[in-house]
């Protein structure tokens, strides 16, 4: 584990081998970032036929976590990518991220 307080833990193995990619993504983000809200939309169907569609899904993530407080956008995204490390290599082709701290939550 990293000495950095905001570093996401490295996922060991897939939490549930039978889980769909969306379920696995949500489970990893909940475990690593303890979000107060999380919404994941699978946009893969909109990209059918796209060459990247064969390499993994297309997702849109809205996540609110106290782990993001005081961090710039790049650092927030890095925490998300760290939580999804191996899925970013195999299973996720594109991930759009809206990461906010609780005091920035949209109303």
Helix and strand layout, with pairings?
Elements: H1 21-33, E1 37-42, E2 56-64, H2 73-83, H3 85-89, E3 91-100
Brief descriptors of the model:
alpha+beta, 27% helix, globular
Fold and architecture overview:
The protein has helices at residues 21-33, 73-83, 85-89, and strands spanning 37-42, 56-64, 91-100. The chain is an alpha+beta fold. It has a 3-stranded mixed β-sheet with strand order 1-2-3. The longest helix is centred in the N-terminal third of the chain and has 13 residues, at 21-33. It is globular, with a radius of gyration of 14 Å.
Characterize this entry briefly.
With 107 residues, the protein is of the alpha+beta class.
Number of strands: 3
Oligomer: single chain
Note the total helix count: 3
Structural class: alpha+beta
Calculate the terminal CA-CA distance, rounded to whole Å.
35 Å
What is the C-alpha radius of gyration, as a whole number of Å? Answer: 14 Å
């Amino acid at each position: 584990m990293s000495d950095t307080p905001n570093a996401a833990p490295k996922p060991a193995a897939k939490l549930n081998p039978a889980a769909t990619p969306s379920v696995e993504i949500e489970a990893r983000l909940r475990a690593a970032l303890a979000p107060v809200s999380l919404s994941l939309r699978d946009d893969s169907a909109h990209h059918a036929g796209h060459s990247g569609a064969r390499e993994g899904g297309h997702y849109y993530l809205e996540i609110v976590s106290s782990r993001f407080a005081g961090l710039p956008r790049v650092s927030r995204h890095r925490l998300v990518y760290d939580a999804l490390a191996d899925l970013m290599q195999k299973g996720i082709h594109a991930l759009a991220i809206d990461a906010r701290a609780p005091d920035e939550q949209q109303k």
